[in-house]
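Deliverable D4.2, example record:
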Amino acid sequence: MRGTEFLPVSREEMIERGWYYYDFLVVTADAYIDHPSFGTTLIARALEADGYRVAILAQPEWKDCEAFRAMGKPRYGVMIGGGNLDSMVAHYTVAKRRRTKDLYSPGGRLGYRPDRPTIVYANRAREAFPDTPIVIGGLEASLRRFAHYDYWDDKVRRSILFDAPADLLVYGMGESATREIARRLSRKVKPCDITDVPGTAYIADDDSGCRFHRTDCPSYEAVCESKEDYARATMIQYDEHDPIRGKAILQPCEGKLLVVNPPARPLTREALDKLYDLPYVREVHPMYEEDVPAIEEVRFSITHNRGCFGACNFCALAFHQGRMVTSRSIESVVREAEILAADPQFKGYIHDVGGPSANFRHTSCAQQKRCGMCKGKKCLAPEPCKNLDADHSEYTRLLREVAKVPGVKKVFVRSGIRYDYMLQDKNKEFFSQLVNHHISGQLKVAPEHCVTSVLDYMGKPHFDVFEKFWAQYKKLNEKGGKEQYLVPYLMSSHPGCTLNDAVTLAEFLKNNARQPEQVQDFYPTPGTISTCMYYTGIDPRDMSEVYVARDPHDKALQRALLQWGRPEKRPLVLEALQKAGRTDLIGYGKHCLIRPPAGWKPPEEKKEEKKPAPRRDDRRRDEGRGRDDRRAKSESRGKKGDSGHKPPMSAKKKAAFAKKRAGKK
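Output generated by the structure prediction step:
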């Protein structure tokens, strides 16, 4: 059922509800949109469902703490989230230039939130309520729970808990951990005694409060001083990020101890259904005079799953949502589709039924449910695991059931499709249904690159898998009489990618008549294996050395190669090809990337220097040396037993040869 009432955002709205106190203040760096696609809303509604009075403080003024005091002091605690998107990514491009829009703010304008809002808000909340428990969570806190390399400061920063004066940190998809913390706080349990909740982290003097099996991680000081220690710490953090076999990780920092408990178990299907059945209004709060652009992408979309066992090295999903996939029931998704169909703004098109990876509905294998994810291995790359369960039948049925909802004309899939996973399904029914019914003109997939070594550093399948998928995609479109395009996502300057690798990718694109409009330059966000490679120059999986393009100009050259057809990129493309020694791609041939500029001349090949003519006595000496060489060769040919050479002349042949010469004379 669709909700009709927003959570209160002011004292006036609290009084309208008859509230003269409230239990939890939920603070967010995004505008308040009461929709299940926003993490803060999920947490707030989950607390409300447990019977707590919850107020929302969205994008508060952060210069002082007055905005935090405006609704009065909460009885039990303050919950703080940095927003759906990492604030630094939201504010800055990979070139560290300030962005011009913030899609999660009114009117899409910048300035409604600070950089690193989790830290800023926690400090203001502590000023406003010195003795009130503070809990931080969300993506920003989750990815920064350990000491981490910060791309924008270009240094290693402490765990965010040391900069945000909070009592507890919740990481990952935090509903179960947050609800357990709320239950204990409401029973007057001190935050310092809440040390046994999975999916949380805290600062302690020692490890006496830890209730889990634990492992040590190199200290903050060690990872600052040694890149090898940083790489080792990264792999410990990834290896233990498992809700079944994971251990608590202890990381010393400045005389204190950061304790990160094992991850919480993913919500069951039943719990996910209940969470998404809560009474969301599904609109932007009316206090805003301008629209918030972020609502448009999700207004008529449905999230059906969580987690991603694809685990690309450059993606933070594995470190946040985890690799264990869970999903909602078909009935729950259909109920949400019915709510969308009843919306007066609905035009009959559901834009997406997806998630982190749209075609994941269950764990990658049965063993994972008992033993957790395999340590040091991936389910799909470089080759699919033999235990992989690639059954798409339930997702196929889900899309069909949603399409049957009255008022629904079309159901599209716009989230990322893992084509390597799809190809492992021996039953091609889903692939056929996807092409025939669920693509809106173009399908976006992410091969990322075509060079094997680069794909290995990315944790992606090899390129022949994409080519196989592409061929089948073309075949299905031709069979169905459809003209639907394939849009490949590509990435430049990922660790391990050289300039010559970028040239190879550009050649592939040219040969296949592809000119991508958008290319993602590798962005080193906190908490990924690829960011570890970028900072350390080390692959933490085997501690081997990795080439990294860090210089902004080198990164610009790689990116320009993938967009060689753009006029403004020509100078960079020309420079890149010369630098890579590939001037053969500058010219008028079909294989060339760009035409030469006016007056341009290809570099001349080095010619051997002409030696001066030898003097007469030198010639005689050389000729004599040549006669000696020829005589030696002749003698060697005449030796018996030299295979492959002519035997000596017989006496009869010698006489015939002498007679012939005499006749000529």
